[in-house]
Amino acid sequence: MNQPIVRVRELRKSYGKLHAVDGVTFDIERGEIFALLGPNGAGKSTTIEILEGYRHRTGGEVSVLGTDPATAGLDWKTRLGIVLQSTGESGSATVREQLAHFAALYPDPRDVDEVIAAVGLEEKAKTLIRKLSGGQRRRVDVALGVIGRPELLFLDEPTTGFDPQARRQFWELVRSLKREGTTIVLTTHYLDEAAQLADRVGVIAGGRMVDVGGVDEIGGRDARVPVVRWRENGERRELRTDLPATHVARLVAAGDGVEPEGVEIVRPTLEDVYLSLIAHTTDATDIGAPSDSSREEVAA
Ligand SMILES: Nc1ncnc2c1ncn2[C@@H]1O[C@H](COP(=O)(O)OP(=O)(O)OP(=O)(O)O)[C@@H](O)[C@H]1O
Ligand SMILES: [Mg+2]
């Protein structure tokens, strides 16, 4: 069997007394889109930045593209694409200049203008990055993440600040990258985005993996039973059932073929499943607030 492209075993990261990541285990297979979901402070960025080689772990095993990120070199890094949650983008170059500059650092970069078009910045190609709007700047971050034609792309809340149209365009970009064989690790608080894009999902809370599995399987079968809703004599009725169409047919038969009022079949969304998964979890294992001296800078 092929080795997973990302292999994480019992990963731990402490900031002083705070166990930000507290024994997390998962694999990511080549070619899949894996979404890491969880509340603010769950440990998503910490986990991803350890995989990217930006942060040092406290414990556990990590292998990314067959290499330990803690000791990996520049060759390894050129095979990754990275969109950090926050970037210190200075912006004294134009969009096109910045992308061309970064493209030159990679052995087999994508075409700069194609990438500009893919993120919808054609009209801003000659604009200074610092003069862009927040959402436009975020699109530059995404463009910089994909310019090097990465095998493995990390996207940490890539669409924050995107308008709905930009988000749809981004989804198309991600799908086309997947078709080309790119493996993608994504975090997002937009559960519809995760449902649209992800093959598999990991839900992390308080530094622990609550569940990991297929986007249509996570949370278990019980969390996914559909609900039939209708009105009877003006009153709202509902039934949770694995056979919703059968129930609707029964309603129709019972009414001598008359269309029942207000019928709908509602299936729990990924957001519903996610909320029930994290409902019983607590915040990160915070044994006293971390002191200032425990704050660790992100290594460049
Ligand atoms: N450099 C740091 N020094 C000290 N504590 C940190 C540092 N970075 C993160 N933390 C703490 O670690 C925990 C996990 O943070 P992390 O950024 O991984 O969360 P996240 O899941 O990415 O959250 P969000 O959805 O808000 O981005 C939080 O409690 C955070 O305060
Ligand atoms: Mg984060």
From TrEMBL:
Residues 6-231 form the ABC transporter domain. The keyword Thylakoid does not apply. Pfam families: ABC_tran. Coiled coil: none annotated. InterPro entries: AAA+_ATPase, ABC_transporter-like_ATP-bd, ABC_transporter-like_CS, ABC_transporter_ATP-binding, P-loop_NTPase. Keywords: ATP-binding, Nucleotide-binding, Transport. GO terms for molecular function: ATP binding. This is ABC transporter ATP-binding protein. It comes from Lysobacter korlensis.
